[in-house]
Amino acid sequence: MYYLGRTLRHRWFFTRLEGQMTTQHFKFYRSGLGIFATARRTLLGFCLFIGCVTAGAEEPPRVVRTVPENGAQSVDAATAELHFTFDQPMDTKRGYSFVTVGNKSMLPEVAGKPRWISDTTIVLPVKLKPGREYSLGINSERHQNFRGINGLPVVPYPISFRTALSGDVKPLDPEQNRKSLEQLRSVIEEKYSHRDLRGIDWNARFAEFEPRLLDTKTSRQFAILAGQLLGVARDAHIWLDADGDRLAGFRRNVRPNADRELLKRIIPRFRSVNRAVATGRFPDGPAYLVIGSWAQKAARDIEAAAKWIDGLSPDDTLILDIRFNSGGDERLARKIAGRFVDQSVVYASHLNRDASSPSGFSEINKRTLKPIRPGFRGRTVVLMGPVNMSSCEAFLLMMKQAPQCTLMGEKSYGSSGNPKPISLANGVTVFLPSWVALTPDGEPFEGKGISPDVHVEFPDGSEDDPLINAALELLKGDKG
């Protein structure tokens, strides 16, 4: 979740609470007050706020009018402002909270700072595109910074609308959509490796969505609806691409079992090396290393971590913190894990989806980790948690093969898949998991996760990090 707001000194600031952020996912709009940013990639949405006031005992404000109207079709894509009118005077000096409703890709691109044109109406500058469906909301159960002068938060109100097609956009015809729908049905049946995992009645699901999918006018509209159809699988490795936009039908809602700002305060000599790596060192104690991603775009960042590990002495101990890491490229994870083993080891296996096989799957394929010299053999505690998935879970399995390593924390998320693209007739591309990931012993962990060797929870609102404390105690005990 990302918050955007300003401090009491009226400076805009950005606080990252969960998930990952890169500059390509945000557009920034500068004003006299500072920076206004619109999130293009969030787990739940975005919230703009300036503060809160104490609630009174009167009726809460409600939205009574929007421009365009909720549910409007064929809205002019040249519309530059959205208007929201409330039934009573609002606290215009304090706060506002626009939130995503449904898929984050349906959020309009914000083109400027929201402004009040009266004590009951706020205007949000936007930049719309033709032939698209948009949605957003005023307040939510969690974000309630729109408030009346009586201090009460506005009752949450969602709005959705669709812009008209431009003259140069050729709408999809039902036959294109019908062919694409049959292709989608076929690939779910024959290529989706987790088709039967959750006991979904796919025939009923397709029947429910078929009329609306056939009626879509653009590839983006088709992709959004198809994402909703597939979202029932609760699979983080399914997404669709339409006109260059990545659209996901399901977004997991997890928080890391760690606090970045707290770590900066409690880890001695804490230093952010780059966007993915941070280091520290406890006096007369272990070294500390954070690796926040295995993404290919972070390859150089991860190389810096590898060199840092190579610089440790044989007498060092290490706390390796990957609690913020949700995966990326498994090959990059091997470049770190290979430094902790002294011989080749099987760390994982998988079954590829094969509709021609009687079982529906291939033979078991094993994946091997090779040592990277000189390597590090000091006692290591790997801190893990529910954010870890995909290639990061492969990394956890790698580290389980190193006898000097102990995994500590909470169970990982349990999601892998090696997604492959399939092109549909109407220009939409769907990405579907192609394998079932297994432990070295052949046990699937999709939907289950990988358990730590030592279970330690991170309570909400903790003023200290119990995982760091437990890791220090474990490493201290080993030395003693």
Short structural summary:
With 480 residues, the protein is of the alpha+beta class. The chain has two domains: 2-162, Immunoglobulin-like; 260-414 and 449-479, 2-enoyl-CoA Hydratase, Chain A, domain 1. It has helices at 174-190, 202-214, 219-230, 260-266, 299-310, 330-337, 391-399, 466-479; strands spanning 2-6, 12-16, 26-31, 34-39, 46-49, 63-67, 81-86, 98-99, 109-110, 115-116, 121-127, 133-138, 157-162, 239-242, 245-247, 271-272, 277-281, 287-291, 318-321, 345-352, 365-369, 380-384, 405-409, 420-423, 429-432, 435-438, 454-455.
Relative strand content: 25-35%
Compute the number of structural domains: 2
Q: Determine the oligomeric state from the structure.
A: single chain
Indicate the CATH architecture of the largest domain.
Alpha-Beta Complex
- Sheet with most strands: strand arrangement: 16-17-18-19-22-23-27
Q: Kindly report the name of the CATH homologous superfamily of the largest domain.
A: 2-enoyl-CoA Hydratase, Chain A, domain 1
